[in-house]
Amino acid sequence: AYGVRSHVFGHYKLAVTAQSALTVRHPLPTGEEEAIAVLRAFAEEQRSERGAHALFLIGCTDEYAELLIRRQTELSDLYLLPCPPADVAQRLWNKADFYALCRRYRIPVPQTFIFDLREGSPPAVAAFETRNTGISYPAVLEPARSSLYWKHRFDGMKKAYVVADAAQAADVAAQIAAAGYPERLLLQEYIPGGDD
User: Fold this and answer.
1) Alpha carbons 189 and 191: distance in angstroms, whole number
2) Given CB 3.0 to 4.6 Å as the disulfide criterion, which of 26, 73, 78, 129 pairs with 43?
3) Residues 122 and 166: beta-carbon distance below 8 Å
């Protein structure tokens, strides 16, 4: 309607935008310094070609959002960045800390039990049993720090896992740990329905 195409920056093509006629894709280096340089160069080029139009820069995954939050002082002269200050974001982007903050302010969240992979080997099956966690099955198992989790890829990797029992939960936790993910895992009450 406005004759404007959004520019998409990413390390690799995503299915949702790869064939889009509404976007222009630009490769983004995986190195943080190089990525910032690419984003700055793009904005400066746009400014010289089109004048001082406002450019919005939005991180659409946890990894990119964290990058923009960490480096917003280096980008805010060229982009409008709808993101919180880094000190606020750091209290929110780890789900274990986020849920603790929700409980503190009486915001309802699913019942959650935390396993800390920073303490060494993944927990055994018994650790996942309902009598030890208070969580009934089926349940949801997911990493507390998504952006860090996706850096440790393995076959069958998912954003979150619906696990049928303690044995399956322990198996998934072992796969995640074996891939090198070094943070906390959340076992949560399963709430049926769509993402909404």
Assistant:
1) 6
2) 78
3) no
Q: Identify which of 84-88, 123-127, 138-142 has the greatest average pLDDT.
A: 138-142
Taking the C-alpha atoms of residue 105 and residue 156, their distance in angstroms, rounded to an integer, is 36
- Say if residues 50 and 4 touch (Cβ distance below 8 Å): no
Neighbouring CB atoms inside 10 A of 191's CB total 8
pTM over 0.85: no
Tell me, what's the pLDDT at 157? 94
CA 173 to chain centre: 18
CA distances from 133 to 58, 69, 129 (A): 37, 34, 6
Q: Residue 128 carries which DSSP code?
A: G
Task: Give the phi and the psi of residue 119 in degrees, each rounded to 5.
Answer: -85, 0
113 φ/ψ angles, rounded to the nearest 5 degrees: -125, 135
189 φ, ψ (degrees, to nearest 5)? -55, 135
Q: Count Cα atoms within 13 angstroms, Cβ side, for 33.
A: 0
DSSP letter (8 states) at residue 142: E
